Amino acid sequence: MMGRGSGIASTIIDGFVWFGGALLIFSLLIGQSLLFFAAAFLLVLGVYPRLYLNYIVQHFGLLNDKEKLRLSQGEKGRLHLVFENSSRLPIVNAELFFSLDKNVTVLNIPRRPYALHLFMPPKQTTEVTLEIEAVARGVVKMKELKVVVHDPLHLASITLSTGFVKKEIVVYPKSQAVTGLDQLILPIEGDQTHQHSLYEDRTSPVGTRSYVPTDPIKNVHWKASARTGQLQTKIFDKTMGMIWTFVIFLDMYGKKGQKERLEEELSRVTAICQIAQKQGVDFELYVNTRTVGQGMFMKLPPGHGSIQLVKAMEFLAFINTNQLKTPPPYIIRDINQEMRQKRLIIMMDHTNQALTSEMRQKWRKKGHRVFTLEAEGILSPIGIRRERYVE
């Protein structure tokens, strides 16, 4: 069932009732049968639309089944609306109206606000298929859905509406290239054996071992080799267990250009998340926006694999610069409490606060690998000499 947005709307049928009633009385007074039948006809025209519409309303409804459509920008998909007419009469003249945010467009309906004619046979359901194209990142919910039902002669109408449609479209951010990814990419393990770890932090040697011909010459520990009289190779700290932590700090007051910069950053975070998924690396996301009833900030707990990637894409799609902001210390405190193992932290800081800069240095001193994602899409490490990479 759908709620009534308004009562039966018509001035014509009210006029038919009043004029027909007066003509009926007059025909009885003067004994004119033709006037009597004309009056009866006018009364029928005045009464039947109300009876028809009230009957239809009791037997018409939206089958509001939950449906979520996931798309990347530029992709197309289908959303379905199913209406039921359980009455014994057809719905000949009805119009469907609804609105969607500009993050998506409906290809098979030419203009906004979207409107579509409905015809529904008795005792049947009718499915409306919407051809959706994703335009921009975001989470889109259908709103302001209403159906205007007219009687067959179009003399009167009634508006039915529903306040909550269980249809949602999630538009993922696009994936955009990041410069300096060689600092993160871990080789995928194959059938050939290697004398060095596939997952290691080259900035953190923790010991030496005997050199073998397959070791790269740059990994030779020359001091240890001179001391032992044999070539020694550096052993690096393993990074296989590192969690990749993405941290986004938005400016509390929404400074100019933040929205455009955020879109670029989220597209690059998408690319890095896809790499983490391929490598089987656990990753998590933080952003200092919040919604009512969802805590002080948004957080995606650590996880890996395809399911985690889908969660991450939905997480990124939901970020909105218009949401309430939380000061960075709340997120920093949570990250510090969770740092039971080494992390690879990638930060995007729109606040330029001294606190966040100091925290990056502290994390680095504690053995975590810390990077900043620059506006140009360059991944820059903290704590060692920064280099600008050329694609």
From TrEMBL:
Q: Does the keyword Membrane apply?
A: yes
For this UniProt entry, which segments traverse the membrane?
A: 12-30, 36-53
Keyword terms: Membrane, Transmembrane, Transmembrane helix
* Protein name (record): DUF58 domain-containing protein
Q: Which organism is it from?
A: Pullulanibacillus pueri
